[in-house]
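Quick review question:
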C-alpha cells in the first residue's frame, strides 16, 4: 500500500499484522454492486453460506480528491470511483428512502438527476498520455464491473490486472442515457458512438473551468469534487469470493 497514511479508511498503508488475513464481505448496501462481481447473493444468510469460494489478491483504488469545503483528502475504493452525473445521483440516492430496493432507487436517482444535470467539460490525463478534454455525462474509473445498482459499466474490468478501466460516457442527453440503460446493465454499451473505454494505472481528472463543481462518486458515496486523482494499488488486499464469483 502507499507509504503515507489515509485517514478515515479501514485500509491502512502499513504492512499487514497478519499477512494471511482476508476480507470477506456480507452485502447489506443499497446497490449491491461489489457483491455481483464477487458472486454473492443479495440475501444476507445466503451470502454467508456462499462464502466458500477462494481468496484472491485484488487491486485497490486510491482516490485523492477535493472535499466540498475545498480541502484535499484521500481514501481507498474497491469497486468504482466516478464523476459527473453519478456523483449527483449518489447525493440524491443517499438522501432518499431506499425501501424500493437498490436497482429502482438508483434508476429513480438517475431520472431525477438527469432532469437538472448538465454535461460538464473536464480534462483527463491517463498515465503519461497527453491530456484529453471532453464534455461528459459521467466518467467511471473501475476496479470492478458494476455500479449504480447493477449497471455493468466496465464489463472488461478485472480486480487483479493491476489497472483501472476508464469508461467515458460522453455528451449524451437525458433521453440518450435512458435509451442506453438497457445496454449498460447488460455491459453491451462500449461500442456506442459517444462512449470511450480506456485503461491505465493513474487518472488525473480536472474541471476545465476553475469555478466548475464536478461531483464525485466513490463506491456509492459522494465524498467531494474535482480535481481528483485515481490510482491503482496492485494486489493490495486479500478478498474472499463467493462460489458464483469463481465462475464469472
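Suggested answer, residue by residue:
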Amino acid at each position: 500500500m502507499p507509504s503515507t497514511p489515509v485517514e478515515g479508511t479501514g485500509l491502512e498503508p502499513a504492512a499487514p499484522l497478519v499477512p494471511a488475513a482476508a476480507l470477506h464481505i456480507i452485502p447489506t448496501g443499497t446497490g449491491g454492486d461489489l457483491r455481483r462481481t464477487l458472486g454473492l447473493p443479495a440475501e444476507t444468510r445466503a451470502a454467508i453460506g456462499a462464502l466458500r469460494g477462494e481468496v484472491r489478491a485484488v487491486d485497490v483504488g486510491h482516490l485523492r480528491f477535493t472535499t466540498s469545503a475545498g480541502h484535499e483528502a484521500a481514501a481507498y475504493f474497491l469497486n468504482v470511483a466516478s464523476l459527473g452525473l453519478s456523483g449527483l445521483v449518489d447525493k440524491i440516492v443517499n438522501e432518499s428512502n431506499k425501501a424500493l430496493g437498490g436497482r429502482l432507487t438508483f434508476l429513480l436517482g438517475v431520472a431525477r438527476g438527469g432532469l437538472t444535470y448538465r454535461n460538464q467539460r473536464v480534462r483527463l490525463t491517463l498515465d503519461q498520455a497527453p491530456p484529453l478534454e471532453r464534455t461528459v455525462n459521467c466518467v467511471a474509473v473501475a476496479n470492478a464491473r458494476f455500479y449504480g445498482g447493477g449497471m455493468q459499466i466496465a464489463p472488461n474490468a478485472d480486480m487483479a490486472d493491476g489497472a483501472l478501466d476508464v469508461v467515458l460516457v460522453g455528451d449524451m442527453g437525458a433521453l440518450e442515457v435512458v435509451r442506453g440503460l438497457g445496454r449498460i446493465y447488460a455491459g453491451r454499451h462500449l461500442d456506442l458512438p459517444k462512449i470511450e473505454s480506456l485503461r491505465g494505472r493513474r487518472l488525473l481528472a480536472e474541471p476545465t473551468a476553475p469555478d466548475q463543481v464536478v461531483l464525485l462518486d466513490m463506491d456509492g458515496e459522494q465524498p467531494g469534487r474535482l480535481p481528483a486523482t485515481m490510482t491503482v494499488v496492485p494486489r493490495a488486499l486479500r478478498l474472499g469470493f463467493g462460489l458464483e464469483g469463481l465462475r464469472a
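Why it works: The longest helix spans residues 102-116. The first strand starts at residue 55 and ends at 66.
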